[in-house]
Automatic annotation (TrEMBL):
This is Mobilization protein. Keywords: Coiled coil. CDD domains: MobM_relaxase. Pfam families: Mob_Pre. Gene3D superfamilies: 3.30.930.30. GO terms for biological process: DNA recombination. It comes from the Bacteria. Residues 211-317 form a coiled coil. One of its GO terms (molecular function) is DNA binding.
Length: 429
């Protein structure tokens, strides 16, 4: 059972840097650009509002504040929610990510007021799916008296209990932060998530600090890779040189040893009866060297012949393959255009060979089960769904499901799923 992640942080000023990150005006280094299209806005902005910063300002203008907002005053609270990486992957695979998003928005709207939650973005282009929620800390009631005000015993005019104020401190007291962790864990228990260890010394890293640490680690690893590559090249060069020396020594080692021994003892043996015996020994060694050299040449010739035989066999096989491919392209030109579609049917939709073979004969096939959408990373139920391959105007073959393209079919199923959850679809908007 994994843990929930709930992090709250005060934001000063317009918080434009965080807006650029959340809205993906700038793609961060840890995000996958090929998955950015999977990110979603979970709260629709009012008319005329284009981004998160403008939504914060609109809420402040319409809240009915009576005090002027200070330059350093907290105008928004950043909330980041997620879960343990493995559990978020499980929630995605179970097709419950949309339900998880809906429950998160409902939790914060009930806790802080729907009108104060001005933005919420789901990010799926980073390692773990997570939601960025933006809260404008509008509260009601009289502000807490400071300790020094009590000491001087001055009389301050009490404001009505329903006075609207901008105060992040009232929301982020120590006791309230603890209660948020407790209640949020209860809300997320249905997804197999629980509260983190209370009193743990682990601390959340800010986004800026996380990117800085990641870049520092990447630079360190890059330097180590360069150093290891240089060591590898040096070792390979030394190994190459050693092989050459070993090969030479094998052929000439015996003669060198004999010549050295003769040179060292020639003085003591000169004129003796052993001279002729040494000469015969030297001749035997020379013959042995010539024999070894001949055996080495024969092995080289044999290896060269084997390599040439393998090369000839490969060229013959390759030639036959080219002839077959040319034959197919000439008399069955549509086969080449079917290849991308076959790969899509097999690798993405997990169709079996029997189904794919029948579709490639341009027959309708009834499918029952679940079909996977790579666009939405979700499985959709198919009950007696009719699939077929149709050729478009460009001569390409596409999969049709129930008479429409598979792209349109998946999007229609997505809209039906969202409507069942009560979430407005893009078409309704």
């Amino acid at each position: 059972m994994g843990f929930v992640v709930l992090h709250m942080e005060k934001a000063h000023g317009s918080d434009s840097g965080t807006t650029a990150h959340i809205e993906r005006f700038i793609i961060p280094k840890n995000a996958d650009p090929t998955r950015t299209h999977l990110n979603r806005k979970l709260i629709t902005y009012p008319d005329g509002i284009k981004d998160r910063s403008a939504a914060i300002q609109r809420r402040l203008e319409e809240a009915g504040l009576t005090r002027k907002i200070g330059n350093n005053q907290v105008r928004a609270i950043r909330i980041n929610v997620s879960g343990t990486h493995e559990d978020m992957e499980r929630i995605e695979k179970e097709g419950r990510l949309d339900e998880w998003c809906t429950d998160n928005i409902r939790y914060f709207a009930d806790l802080f007021g729907k009108e104060n939650i001005v933005a919420a973005h789901l990010h799926r282009d980073e390692e773990t799916p997570h939601i960025h929620v933006t809260l404008v800390p509008i509260v009601k009631g009289e502000r807490k008296r400071r300790k020094r005000e009590k000491q001087v015993k001055k009389r301050y005019r009490k404001k009505p209990a329903d006075t609207v104020r901008l105060c992040a401190d009232d929301i982020m007291t120590r006791l309230k932060l603890k209660s948020y962790q407790d209640s949020y864990a209860v809300a997320m228990a249905k997804y197999g998530l629980q509260r983190g260890i209370e009193g743990s010394k682990a601390r959340h890293k800010s986004t800026t600090q996380y990117y800085r640490d990641t870049q520092r680690l990447a630079d360190s690893l890059k330097a180590e890779v360069v150093d290891l590559q240089q060591q590898k090249e040096t070792a390979q060069e030394e190994l190459k040189q050693a092989k050459k020396e070993v090969q030479t020594e094998k052929l000439k080692g015996a003669a060198t040893t004999a010549a050295t021994n003769i040179a060292e003892s020639v003085g003591s043996l000169f004129g003796g009866g052993k001279m002729k015996a040494l000469e015969r020994r030297n001749e035997d060694l020379q013959d042995r060297i010539l024999k070894l050299e001949e055996e080495a040449r024969q092995r080289e010739n044999q290896q060269a012949k084997q390599i040439q035989d393998i090369k000839n066999a490969y060229e013959q096989q390759n030639s036959k393959l080219f002839e077959f491919v040319d034959f197919v392209k000439r008399y069955f030109p549509y086969v080449e255009k079917l290849m991308p579609t076959i790969k899509f049917l097999r690798d993405t939709l997990n169709f079996g060979d029997a189904v794919i073979r029948k579709l490639c004969t341009f027959k309708d096939v009834s499918i029952k089960g679940e079909l996977y959408s790579r666009e939405f990373n979700q499985h959709f139920r198919a009950d007696k769904t009719i699939c077929s391959l149709k050729e478009d105007k460009e001569g390409n073959f596409n999969l049709n499901i129930d008479g429409v393209s598979h792209v349109s079919w998946f999007r229609r199923k997505k809209d039906e799923f969202m409507q069942s959850l009560g979430v407005p679809t893009n078409r309704q908007n």
